[in-house]
Predict the structure.
Amino acid sequence: MTLPPPPRTRPLGRSGIDVSPLAWGMWRFRGTDTRHAASLVHAALDAGITLFDTADVYGPDNGEPFGAAEALLGQVLKAEPDLRRRIVLAGKGGISIGVPYDSSADYLVAACEASLRRLGTDRFELYMIHRPDLLAHPDEVAGAFDRLRQSGKIAAAGVSNHTPWQVAALQEAMPFPLAAIQPEFSPLAIAAVEDGTFDQAMQQRLAVLAWSPLGGGRLGGEPADARGRDVAAALDAVAERNGVPRTAAAYAWVMAHPCGAIPIVGSQTEGRIREAAQAMQVRMTRAEWYAVYAASRQAPLP
Ligand code: NAP
């Protein structure tokens, strides 16, 4: 008996929007070659991916200015305007370099508007707070989401890197339900299954966008330590049985959790983005899923 395979689409929380079971992320999306950038967007669409994840702060980590990744996608969309309707666009704001977090209502509204200008589009299907601002009351954040939704600039709202209690406090203040969370989750980063994050997502019907599903690329190459070797070996067993690369087994492991986690593929290589689609073919037994989990914990399960 294998675990249920991922469905063809997943609901974006209770927003009424459906998305692909895999997403593509633009943290590492960089450069000035619009044609190359467009080839990556097409690779993701060809792989069946409709959910695209970006953020205003994607740029400086690549040695580029704040907003650079959004601006690059904006160039791609400008050259091929028909692409926009094929994409469910997710953005994030609330990180202000040097502050570092600002979720005050005026800041968030202005940040979202600036992102939309760089992208050359008038609406995010999903807009998320990138990291919690400890100085922003949930009422204020909810008020910002309300203003953005009332003005048609966002269709749905979510949060990233929030604790379950932070999500609960914000949900209570929201005039419409939060649609999504974005925690780190991979065979090398398993906190979200253990700290209540995924349980809350299932309780509240939140979509789960899993960031760094290959552990920031560590699962793509040679493991660096004993834990990495054990996790890679457990994934390789699944990969070999299914005739797919280890990375596909890793995405499939993320997708197999019943919260319906959506791995955000981070590759900026056309071939690897296309290869991610193979994750849809992987069939994994319960024992195989737990073997990866136990390897990651570096302790047998009681
Ligand atoms: P990842 O999939 O864990 O890592 C992607 C990296 O792995 C790329 O540099 C890729 O290189 C490398 N890689 C090495 N071997 C690979 C292989 N065989 N197949 C695919 N990739 C391989 O994801 P990530 O880039 O760290 O994060 C994914 C997305 O999550 C980001 O783009 C962003 O949207 C989101 N994110 C969100 C947060 C947050 O705080 N909310 C934080 C981090 C990331 P190549 O490009 O050369 O293929």
About this structure: Residues 11 and 27 are 24 Å apart (CA to CA). Residues 10-297 form a domain with the TIM Barrel fold (CATH 3.20.20.100).
